[in-house]
Amino acid sequence: MPAAQLVLVVANLVYATAPTMTRLTLEHVSPSTLAFAELLIASVLLVPLALRRDAKAMAMSAADRWRIAGMGLIGFAVAFSLSNWGIRLSSASNAALLITLEPASLIVLSPLLLGEKLTRREASGAALALLGATVIVVNGVPGVTTELAPRWRGDVLLVLAAVAYASYTLLGRRVLSRHRALPVTAWSLLCGAAGMVPLVTLEHMSGQASTWTPAAVAGMLYLAVVVVALGFMGWNYAVERLEAPRVAIFLNIQPLAGALIGVWWLGEPLTVFTIAGGLLILTGLHVGSGFDFSTRGDSERPSTIVKKSEPDPG
Known about the structure:
By secondary structure, the protein is mostly helical. Helix content is 73%, strand content 0%. It has 12 helices and no strands. The longest helix has 28 residues, at 62-89. It is globular, with a radius of gyration of 19 Å.
Protein backbone atom coordinates (compact mmCIF):
# COMPACT_ATOMS: atom_id res chain seq x y z
CA MET A 1 0.00 0.00 0.00
CA PRO A 2 1.41 3.45 -0.95
CA ALA A 3 2.47 5.64 1.97
CA ALA A 4 -0.24 8.25 1.32
CA GLN A 5 -2.99 5.62 1.40
CA LEU A 6 -1.58 4.10 4.59
CA VAL A 7 -1.50 7.54 6.25
CA LEU A 8 -5.10 8.14 5.14
CA VAL A 9 -6.24 4.84 6.64
CA VAL A 10 -4.47 5.61 9.93
CA ALA A 11 -5.86 9.17 10.00
CA ASN A 12 -9.43 7.93 9.52
CA LEU A 13 -8.98 5.24 12.18
CA VAL A 14 -7.63 7.86 14.60
CA TYR A 15 -10.63 10.10 13.90
CA ALA A 16 -12.89 7.08 14.40
CA THR A 17 -11.66 6.77 18.00
CA ALA A 18 -12.61 10.38 18.80
CA PRO A 19 -16.29 9.84 19.79
CA THR A 20 -15.45 6.99 22.17
CA MET A 21 -12.48 8.82 23.70
CA THR A 22 -14.63 11.94 24.07
CA ARG A 23 -17.35 9.93 25.80
CA LEU A 24 -14.82 8.49 28.27
CA THR A 25 -13.22 11.87 28.98
CA LEU A 26 -16.61 13.51 29.51
CA GLU A 27 -17.06 11.28 32.56
CA HIS A 28 -14.56 13.58 34.31
CA VAL A 29 -14.54 16.85 32.33
CA SER A 30 -17.47 19.11 31.40
CA PRO A 31 -18.25 19.42 27.65
CA SER A 32 -17.30 23.07 27.11
CA THR A 33 -14.12 22.77 29.19
CA LEU A 34 -13.03 19.76 27.16
CA ALA A 35 -13.73 21.60 23.90
CA PHE A 36 -11.74 24.62 25.11
CA ALA A 37 -8.78 22.44 26.13
CA GLU A 38 -8.77 20.60 22.78
CA LEU A 39 -8.86 23.81 20.74
CA LEU A 40 -6.30 25.65 22.86
CA ILE A 41 -3.72 22.85 22.87
CA ALA A 42 -4.17 22.13 19.15
CA SER A 43 -3.76 25.84 18.30
CA VAL A 44 -0.65 26.13 20.52
CA LEU A 45 0.86 23.27 18.50
CA LEU A 46 -0.23 24.39 15.02
CA VAL A 47 0.17 28.20 15.14
CA PRO A 48 3.98 28.09 15.68
CA LEU A 49 4.23 25.39 13.00
CA ALA A 50 2.30 27.57 10.55
CA LEU A 51 4.53 30.57 11.31
CA ARG A 52 7.68 28.45 10.95
CA ARG A 53 6.63 27.17 7.54
CA ASP A 54 5.52 30.60 6.36
CA ALA A 55 6.56 33.74 8.22
CA LYS A 56 3.85 35.64 6.32
CA ALA A 57 1.12 33.23 7.40
CA MET A 58 -0.87 36.09 8.93
CA ALA A 59 -0.32 38.45 5.99
CA MET A 60 -3.95 38.51 4.87
CA SER A 61 -6.67 41.08 4.42
CA ALA A 62 -8.92 42.23 7.25
CA ALA A 63 -11.88 40.58 5.49
CA ASP A 64 -10.10 37.21 5.45
CA ARG A 65 -9.18 37.58 9.12
CA TRP A 66 -12.84 38.17 9.99
CA ARG A 67 -13.81 35.12 7.93
CA ILE A 68 -11.24 33.02 9.80
CA ALA A 69 -12.63 34.32 13.09
CA GLY A 70 -16.10 33.24 11.95
CA MET A 71 -14.75 29.85 10.93
CA GLY A 72 -13.23 29.43 14.37
CA LEU A 73 -16.33 30.52 16.27
CA ILE A 74 -18.85 28.46 14.28
CA GLY A 75 -16.76 25.62 12.86
CA PHE A 76 -14.77 24.95 16.01
CA ALA A 77 -16.25 26.59 19.16
CA VAL A 78 -19.92 25.96 18.34
CA ALA A 79 -19.29 22.65 16.56
CA PHE A 80 -17.07 21.18 19.29
CA SER A 81 -19.48 22.31 22.03
CA LEU A 82 -22.50 20.80 20.27
CA SER A 83 -20.57 17.63 19.51
CA ASN A 84 -19.38 17.16 23.11
CA TRP A 85 -22.82 17.86 24.59
CA GLY A 86 -24.36 15.57 21.97
CA ILE A 87 -21.99 12.72 22.82
CA ARG A 88 -22.69 13.16 26.54
CA LEU A 89 -26.47 12.98 25.98
CA SER A 90 -26.41 10.34 23.23
CA SER A 91 -23.73 7.76 22.41
CA ALA A 92 -20.35 7.53 20.71
CA SER A 93 -21.81 5.16 18.10
CA ASN A 94 -24.54 7.61 17.09
CA ALA A 95 -21.99 10.44 17.04
CA ALA A 96 -19.75 8.53 14.63
CA LEU A 97 -22.67 8.06 12.23
CA LEU A 98 -24.48 11.40 12.59
CA ILE A 99 -21.39 13.58 12.25
CA THR A 100 -21.05 12.31 8.66
CA LEU A 101 -24.07 14.47 7.86
CA GLU A 102 -21.61 17.31 7.23
CA PRO A 103 -21.37 16.57 3.47
CA ALA A 104 -25.17 16.46 3.20
CA SER A 105 -25.34 19.78 5.07
CA LEU A 106 -22.84 21.22 2.60
CA ILE A 107 -25.00 20.09 -0.31
CA VAL A 108 -28.12 21.66 1.22
CA LEU A 109 -26.49 24.92 2.38
CA SER A 110 -24.33 25.63 -0.69
CA PRO A 111 -27.24 26.86 -2.86
CA LEU A 112 -28.58 28.97 0.02
CA LEU A 113 -25.31 30.60 1.08
CA LEU A 114 -23.13 30.45 -2.04
CA GLY A 115 -25.72 30.43 -4.81
CA GLU A 116 -24.43 27.12 -6.19
CA LYS A 117 -26.72 24.91 -8.28
CA LEU A 118 -27.89 21.65 -6.79
CA THR A 119 -27.85 18.66 -9.14
CA ARG A 120 -30.45 15.90 -8.95
CA ARG A 121 -27.76 13.47 -7.81
CA GLU A 122 -26.73 15.77 -4.96
CA ALA A 123 -30.32 16.43 -3.93
CA SER A 124 -31.07 12.69 -3.89
CA GLY A 125 -27.92 11.97 -1.88
CA ALA A 126 -28.71 14.67 0.66
CA ALA A 127 -32.29 13.39 1.01
CA LEU A 128 -31.08 9.84 1.68
CA ALA A 129 -28.54 11.05 4.25
CA LEU A 130 -31.12 13.19 6.04
CA LEU A 131 -33.57 10.28 6.04
CA GLY A 132 -30.87 8.09 7.59
CA ALA A 133 -30.23 10.69 10.29
CA THR A 134 -33.96 10.85 11.05
CA VAL A 135 -34.11 7.05 11.40
CA ILE A 136 -31.23 7.19 13.91
CA VAL A 137 -32.70 10.09 15.91
CA VAL A 138 -36.20 8.58 16.25
CA ASN A 139 -34.75 5.04 16.47
CA GLY A 140 -37.55 3.85 14.24
CA VAL A 141 -39.53 4.62 11.11
CA PRO A 142 -40.24 8.36 10.68
CA GLY A 143 -43.98 9.02 10.85
CA VAL A 144 -44.68 5.59 12.34
CA THR A 145 -42.64 5.46 15.54
CA THR A 146 -44.47 7.42 18.23
CA GLU A 147 -42.02 7.16 21.14
CA LEU A 148 -38.59 8.73 20.77
CA ALA A 149 -35.47 7.14 22.23
CA PRO A 150 -34.28 8.83 25.48
CA ARG A 151 -31.10 10.05 23.76
CA TRP A 152 -32.87 11.93 20.97
CA ARG A 153 -31.84 15.33 22.37
CA GLY A 154 -28.18 14.37 22.09
CA ASP A 155 -28.75 13.12 18.55
CA VAL A 156 -30.29 16.47 17.57
CA LEU A 157 -27.23 18.27 18.98
CA LEU A 158 -24.98 15.97 16.92
CA VAL A 159 -26.93 16.83 13.77
CA LEU A 160 -26.52 20.54 14.56
CA ALA A 161 -22.79 19.93 15.12
CA ALA A 162 -22.56 18.49 11.60
CA VAL A 163 -24.24 21.64 10.25
CA ALA A 164 -21.73 23.78 12.18
CA TYR A 165 -18.82 21.79 10.73
CA ALA A 166 -20.30 22.34 7.26
CA SER A 167 -20.46 26.08 7.96
CA TYR A 168 -16.69 26.01 8.55
CA THR A 169 -16.19 24.78 5.00
CA LEU A 170 -18.63 27.26 3.48
CA LEU A 171 -17.12 30.21 5.36
CA GLY A 172 -13.62 29.10 4.41
CA ARG A 173 -14.20 28.44 0.71
CA ARG A 174 -12.80 31.78 -0.45
CA VAL A 175 -10.15 32.02 2.26
CA LEU A 176 -8.73 28.58 1.44
CA SER A 177 -8.54 29.52 -2.23
CA ARG A 178 -6.08 32.29 -1.30
CA HIS A 179 -4.20 30.84 1.68
CA ARG A 180 -2.72 27.49 2.73
CA ALA A 181 -4.83 25.16 4.85
CA LEU A 182 -2.37 24.98 7.77
CA PRO A 183 -2.32 28.69 8.76
CA VAL A 184 -6.06 29.05 8.16
CA THR A 185 -6.80 26.06 10.38
CA ALA A 186 -4.27 27.10 13.04
CA TRP A 187 -5.65 30.63 13.39
CA SER A 188 -9.27 29.46 13.27
CA LEU A 189 -8.48 26.98 16.06
CA LEU A 190 -7.10 29.84 18.15
CA CYS A 191 -10.22 31.94 17.46
CA GLY A 192 -12.35 28.96 18.40
CA ALA A 193 -10.50 28.58 21.70
CA ALA A 194 -11.05 32.28 22.45
CA GLY A 195 -14.74 31.90 21.63
CA MET A 196 -15.03 29.07 24.15
CA VAL A 197 -14.05 31.27 27.12
CA PRO A 198 -17.60 32.63 27.79
CA LEU A 199 -19.09 29.12 27.53
CA VAL A 200 -16.50 27.67 29.91
CA THR A 201 -17.16 30.53 32.35
CA LEU A 202 -20.92 29.92 32.26
CA GLU A 203 -20.38 26.20 32.68
CA HIS A 204 -18.29 26.70 35.82
CA MET A 205 -20.70 29.29 37.22
CA SER A 206 -23.51 26.73 36.87
CA GLY A 207 -21.55 24.34 39.09
CA GLN A 208 -20.32 21.91 36.42
CA ALA A 209 -16.83 21.30 37.76
CA SER A 210 -14.22 19.17 36.02
CA THR A 211 -12.07 16.59 37.78
CA TRP A 212 -8.67 16.35 36.12
CA THR A 213 -7.86 12.73 36.89
CA PRO A 214 -4.92 11.06 35.07
CA ALA A 215 -7.46 9.40 32.76
CA ALA A 216 -9.09 12.76 31.99
CA VAL A 217 -5.74 14.43 31.23
CA ALA A 218 -4.69 11.51 29.02
CA GLY A 219 -7.99 11.63 27.13
CA MET A 220 -7.81 15.38 26.66
CA LEU A 221 -4.21 15.22 25.39
CA TYR A 222 -5.08 12.36 23.03
CA LEU A 223 -7.99 14.31 21.55
CA ALA A 224 -6.04 17.57 21.22
CA VAL A 225 -2.64 16.29 20.10
CA VAL A 226 -3.32 13.02 18.27
CA VAL A 227 -6.82 13.56 16.87
CA VAL A 228 -6.89 17.30 16.12
CA ALA A 229 -3.24 18.32 15.56
CA LEU A 230 -1.53 15.17 14.24
CA GLY A 231 -4.73 13.98 12.56
CA PHE A 232 -4.89 17.24 10.61
CA MET A 233 -1.26 17.00 9.51
CA GLY A 234 -1.59 13.38 8.42
CA TRP A 235 -4.84 14.08 6.61
CA ASN A 236 -3.37 16.93 4.59
CA TYR A 237 -0.24 14.89 3.77
CA ALA A 238 -2.51 12.26 2.22
CA VAL A 239 -4.98 14.48 0.35
CA GLU A 240 -2.12 16.39 -1.28
CA ARG A 241 -0.93 13.11 -2.84
CA LEU A 242 -4.17 11.31 -3.71
CA GLU A 243 -6.98 12.12 -6.13
CA ALA A 244 -10.34 13.10 -4.68
CA PRO A 245 -12.24 9.85 -5.49
CA ARG A 246 -9.76 7.78 -3.48
CA VAL A 247 -9.97 10.17 -0.55
CA ALA A 248 -13.78 9.94 -0.61
CA ILE A 249 -13.65 6.13 -0.49
CA PHE A 250 -11.38 6.13 2.56
CA LEU A 251 -13.79 8.45 4.41
CA ASN A 252 -16.14 5.48 4.82
CA ILE A 253 -13.72 4.05 7.38
CA GLN A 254 -14.47 6.77 9.92
CA PRO A 255 -18.22 6.30 10.63
CA LEU A 256 -18.15 2.51 10.40
CA ALA A 257 -15.08 2.08 12.62
CA GLY A 258 -16.31 4.79 15.00
CA ALA A 259 -19.66 3.08 15.54
CA LEU A 260 -18.05 -0.33 16.03
CA ILE A 261 -15.51 1.06 18.52
CA GLY A 262 -18.37 2.54 20.57
CA VAL A 263 -20.19 -0.80 20.60
CA TRP A 264 -17.06 -2.85 21.41
CA TRP A 265 -15.34 -0.56 23.93
CA LEU A 266 -18.31 1.05 25.67
CA GLY A 267 -20.84 -1.72 25.23
CA GLU A 268 -23.30 0.66 23.56
CA PRO A 269 -26.43 -0.85 22.00
CA LEU A 270 -26.57 -1.02 18.21
CA THR A 271 -30.19 -1.27 17.12
CA VAL A 272 -31.51 -2.33 13.73
CA PHE A 273 -32.58 1.27 13.13
CA THR A 274 -29.11 2.60 13.96
CA ILE A 275 -27.61 0.22 11.38
CA ALA A 276 -30.29 1.08 8.80
CA GLY A 277 -29.84 4.80 9.37
CA GLY A 278 -26.07 4.51 9.06
CA LEU A 279 -26.40 2.61 5.77
CA LEU A 280 -28.79 5.25 4.43
CA ILE A 281 -26.32 8.02 5.34
CA LEU A 282 -23.39 6.23 3.66
CA THR A 283 -25.53 5.50 0.58
CA GLY A 284 -26.52 9.15 0.44
CA LEU A 285 -22.87 10.22 0.60
CA HIS A 286 -22.00 7.90 -2.28
CA VAL A 287 -24.94 9.08 -4.38
CA GLY A 288 -24.38 12.76 -3.64
CA SER A 289 -20.63 12.65 -4.25
CA GLY A 290 -21.02 12.30 -8.00
CA PHE A 291 -18.16 9.81 -8.28
CA ASP A 292 -18.00 6.51 -10.11
CA PHE A 293 -16.07 4.54 -7.51
CA SER A 294 -15.30 1.75 -9.98
CA THR A 295 -12.80 3.96 -11.80
CA ARG A 296 -9.83 6.08 -10.82
CA GLY A 297 -10.71 9.09 -12.92
CA ASP A 298 -11.88 12.37 -11.40
CA SER A 299 -15.53 13.28 -11.68
CA GLU A 300 -16.58 16.28 -13.70
CA ARG A 301 -17.76 17.92 -10.51
CA PRO A 302 -15.68 17.43 -7.34
CA SER A 303 -17.34 15.80 -4.38
CA THR A 304 -18.51 17.95 -1.54
CA ILE A 305 -17.10 15.30 0.77
CA VAL A 306 -13.49 16.33 0.22
CA LYS A 307 -13.82 20.12 -0.03
CA LYS A 308 -12.85 20.55 3.59
CA SER A 309 -9.17 20.51 4.54
CA GLU A 310 -9.68 17.84 7.18
CA PRO A 311 -12.39 15.46 8.41
CA ASP A 312 -14.40 16.03 11.56
CA PRO A 313 -12.80 14.98 14.79
CA GLY A 314 -16.15 14.22 16.21
